[in-house]
Structure formats: structure tokens, C-alpha cells
Amino acid sequence: MPITPREYEILQNSTGTFSAGITGNDGATLIPLASLLTLTLTLYVIKTDGTIGYVNSRNAQNVLNLNNVTVSALGVLTWAIQTADTALIEALPFERHIALFEWTAAGVVGKCEIILIVQDLTEV
């Protein structure tokens, strides 16, 4: 997965799918499922008061083929985004839900951040 954050728009309380390859230190070679030791997901919001709010209890949550995340044998991660992942923490027209995936494999420590731009449906 690339190190540069990627942004995706999604509606409040909706579902979706995110897929990306889990890569090694070179950023290109896929790490196969059998080589992964850990894979976690932290999904959070930086609230208007500067504090962090965790979304859907995803705080360094184990997602190695658990909790709506699967990894193929070749190393392709697929996250089935749940309605609870797109629930708003604050009453705002848009809210940035930051998804931080972190993984380890033999000799590899990696991370990728994606941003879900969640639109409040009451403001549509």
C-alpha cells in the first residue's frame, strides 16, 4: 500500500469496499498472507476540540482475516466498510475518518493511511 494518504468520499451510515496490496519495504512487492505476522486497523477522527475519537471501536484492532478485513493468499487486503465505520462522531457536514492499517512480517514493518470523507446525510 502506498505511504501517501488517499481520500475517498462516502455517505454517512453507508457501506463500501476498500482494497489494496500489502507491500514490503520497497513499496511494490506484495507480502503474501502466509508471511504476515500482524495486521491492525485504527479508525479515528480528530474532533473539533483536538481530541481523538475512535470509530466503531477500531483502536489497533486485529484485522488479520478478522473484523471485516480479509487478506488474499497473494497479499491483497479487502476491507468491507460497515455502516458503523461511517457513523459521524460530531454533527458536521463532512467528517474525516482516518483509517490506519499497520502490519508486520519477517523484517518488514509497514503502514498505510486512507481517509474516508464522510458526508452527513442530514445536510444533503
Q: How would you describe this structure to a colleague?
A:
By secondary structure, the chain is an all-beta fold. The chain contains no helices and nine strands. Strands 1, 3, 4, 5, 8 and 9 form a six-stranded mixed sheet that branches. The radius of gyration is 15 Å and the shape is elongated.
Topology:
Layout: E1 6-11, E2 16-21, E3 36-46, E4 52-54, E5 61-62, E6 69-71, E7 76-81, E8 94-105, E9 108-119
Parallel strand pairs: 1-9
Antiparallel strand pairs: 2-7, 3-4, 3-5, 3-8, 6-7, 8-9
Based on CA inertia axes, which overall geometry fits? elongated
CATH superfamily: Immunoglobulins
Q: Low-confidence parts, pLDDT < 50 over ≥5 residues?
A: none
- Architecture (CATH level 2) name: Sandwich
What is the rounded Rg? Answer: 15 Å
Give the helix level as a range of percent. under 10%
Estimated share of beta-strand residues: over 45%
In a nutshell, what does this entry contain?
This protein has strands at 6-11, 16-21, 36-46, 52-54, 61-62, 69-71, 76-81, 94-105, 108-119. The protein is mostly beta strands and 124 residues long. The model has no long low-confidence stretch (mean pLDDT 92).
Key features of this structure:
124 residues, mainly beta, Immunoglobulin-like, 6-stranded mixed beta sheet, 3-stranded antiparallel beta sheet, 9 strands, 0% helix
